[in-house]
């Protein structure tokens, strides 16, 4: 059995454990043994150590990477920030051996070492490249039955491309998440603001209203150009904005429609027969319509 | 910075040593900027309407406008999305300039309060985001109350804290590292 280290981060285990449940279900269905990365921490988030110092950032990331190295596994994460922070720290250490050296001096004091042998995946690239679309298709129990999806890859899953081991052919015209939805039987058209930021993250904490207004602009374009059944996310932070953030806009009477949002691991897990209640337990905008469409298709 | 005041650049404030500091803190290619504005054309901060957006931040950094940069909170609204890094024709890596400004600001405690909350959580729990009530949420989906991260392993969490204590956090954290 192939093994993979599941990097949880913070938002998925604490705010959206339904995504964690789904990811675990999905990886098992795909034939992967999940290796727990015991003692793993925050990636670290960009507003923390990366905003303090490069060596401190690299050391905090290397702590996490070394846990996977000790177990001899690659890492997978459902959070864009984790994907970005871990990969960027890795990139800086590869590019500047003196940083890696300083990091290893720090890690040595707690009996650890960072070698640089572990690859960090996100679910989009993992499903697209490692699993493969045909293989993915063969594992589907419930075809998406023409479910219309507007996809949101997420910034950190795309840029900076110099730090990533694999990526879209054109990061300003991403197609992988669309292709994944379509392989499962959905319809996932391109739309003009497909690479626009959702506004979650630092912007949301620094300028909440502007962040939500930016998000609404994107959502209005999605509604007008695609009018989807569901928004499909490649990143857990985007999921928070598209789900809870959207619900907030509705509550504030700034939005007069609702489009449910789902992380790609939830959607794929449901298509493979996961417990729907558990897989969608934390959704603020109900996903009933989406589930009916999927389940009605068989 | 007051709204509308951003258009006035007072060159008497220029501080050459601040430019050097930023370069040392990671803004290595700062001086290559030609103010073409491509970064701003794709930056979420700019699109969201923050007055002091990335092109202007780079400009101010190149002029060594220390006080302007450290007083304005815009750099803390940066999404770390790296669109600017991807698109800049001069390879300035504008995001690294943002980080350098943040690092300079942290040294003089000129950052939003929630920055410290994230750091404190990171140190204490191993998680920058550590919301209350997660145990219930996890139980609802049939997962163990605590995830198998540092929060479940006291020994490992202490080791992680030892790692953080050997970084610059030890010098600048405005809370005790114990
Ligand atoms: S940082 Fe790069 S993209 Fe931005 S204005 Fe300067 S040269 Fe242009
Ligand atoms: S990394 Fe920051 S400065 Fe660069 S485009 Fe993104 S939000 Fe703007």
From TrEMBL, chain A:
User: What keywords were assigned to this record?
Assistant: Oxidoreductase
Name of the protein this chain belongs to: Heterodisulfide reductase subunit B
Q: Which InterPro entries match?
A: Cys_rich_dom, HdrB/HdrD_reductase
Q: Which intervals hold domain Cysteine-rich?
A: 5-86, 150-243
Organism annotation: Thermodesulfovibrio aggregans
Pfam families (alphabetical): CCG
Q: Name one GO molecular function term.
A: oxidoreductase activity
Q: Does the keyword Oxidoreductase apply?
A: yes
Renumbered to this chain, the signal peptide range is: none
Task: Report whether Glycosyltransferase shows up as a keyword of the record.
Answer: no
TrEMBL record, chain B:
Q: Name one GO molecular function term.
A: metal ion binding
Name the Gene3D superfamilies for this protein.
Answer: Alpha-helical ferredoxin
Q: Name one GO cellular component term.
A: plasma membrane
Instruction: Enumerate the InterPro entries for this protein.
Output: 4Fe4S_Fe-S-bd, 4Fe4S_Fe_S_CS, HdrC_iron-sulfur_subunit, Helical_ferredxn
What Pfam families does UniProt report for this protein, alphabetically?
A: Fer4_8
Keyword list (alphabetical) reads: 4Fe-4S, Iron, Iron-sulfur, Metal-binding, Oxidoreductase
Q: Does the keyword 4Fe-4S apply?
A: yes
Residue ranges occupied by any 4Fe-4S ferredoxin-type domain in the UniProt entry? 21-53, 66-98
Q: What is this protein called?
A: Heterodisulfide reductase subunit C
């Amino acid at each position: 059995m192939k093994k993979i280290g599941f990097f949880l981060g913070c938002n998925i285990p604490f705010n959206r454990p339904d995504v964690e449940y789904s990811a675990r279900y999905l990886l098992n269905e795909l034939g992967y043994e999940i290796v727990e990365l015991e003692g793993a921490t925050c990636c670290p988030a960009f507003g923390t150590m990366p905003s303090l110092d490069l060596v401190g950032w690299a050391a905090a990331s290397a702590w996490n990477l070394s846990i996977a190295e000790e177990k001899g596994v690659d890492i997978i994460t459902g959070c864009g920030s984790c994907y970005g922070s871990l990969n960027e720290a890795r990139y800086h250490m590869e590019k500047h051996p003196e940083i890696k050296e300083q990091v290893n001096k720090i890690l040595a004091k707690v009996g650890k070492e960072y070698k640089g042998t572990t690859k960090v995946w996100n679910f989009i690239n993992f499903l697209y490249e490692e699993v493969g679309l045909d293989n993915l298709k063969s594992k589907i129990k419930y075809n998406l039955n023409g479910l219309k999806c507007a996809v949101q890859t997420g910034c950190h899953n795309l840029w900076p491309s110099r730090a990533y081991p694999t990526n879209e052919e054109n990061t300003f015209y991403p197609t992988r998440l669309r292709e994944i939805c379509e392989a499962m039987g959905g319809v996932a058209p391109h739309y003009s603001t497909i690479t626009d930021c959702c506004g979650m993250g630092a912007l949301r904490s620094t300028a909440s209203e502007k962040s939500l207004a930016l998000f609404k602009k994107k959502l209005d374009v999605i509604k007008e150009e695609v009018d989807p059944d569901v928004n499909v996310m490649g990143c857990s932070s985007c999921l928070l904005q598209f789900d809870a953030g959207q619900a907030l806009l509705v509550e504030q009477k700034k939005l007069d429609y609702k489009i449910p949002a789902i992380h790609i691991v939830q959607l794929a897990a449901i298509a493979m027969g996961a417990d729907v209640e558990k897989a969608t337990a934390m959704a603020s905008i109900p996903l009933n319509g989406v589930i009916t469409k999927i389940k009605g298709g068989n | 910075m007051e709204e509308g005041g951003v258009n006035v650049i007072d060159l008497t404030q220029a501080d050459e040593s601040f430019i050097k500091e930023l370069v040392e803190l990671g803004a290595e290619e700062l001086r290559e900027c030609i103010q073409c504005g491509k970064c701003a054309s794709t930056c979420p901060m700019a699109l969201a309407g923050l007055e002091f957006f990335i092109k202007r931040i780079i400009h101010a950094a190149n002029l060594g406008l220390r006080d302007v940069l450290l007083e304005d909170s815009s750099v803390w609204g940066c999404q770390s999305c790296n669109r600017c890094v991807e698109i800049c024709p001069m390879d300035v890596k504008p995001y690294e300039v943002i980080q350098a400004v943040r690092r300079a600001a942290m040294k003089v405690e000129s950052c939003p309060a929630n920055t410290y909350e994230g750091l404190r959580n990171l140190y204490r729990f191993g998680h920058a985001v550590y919301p209350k009530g997660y145990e219930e949420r996890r139980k609802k989906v049939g997962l163990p109350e605590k995830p198998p991260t540092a929060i479940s392993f006291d020994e490992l969490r202490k080791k992680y804290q030892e790692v953080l204590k050997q970084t610059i956090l030890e010098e600048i954290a405005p809370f005790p590292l114990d």
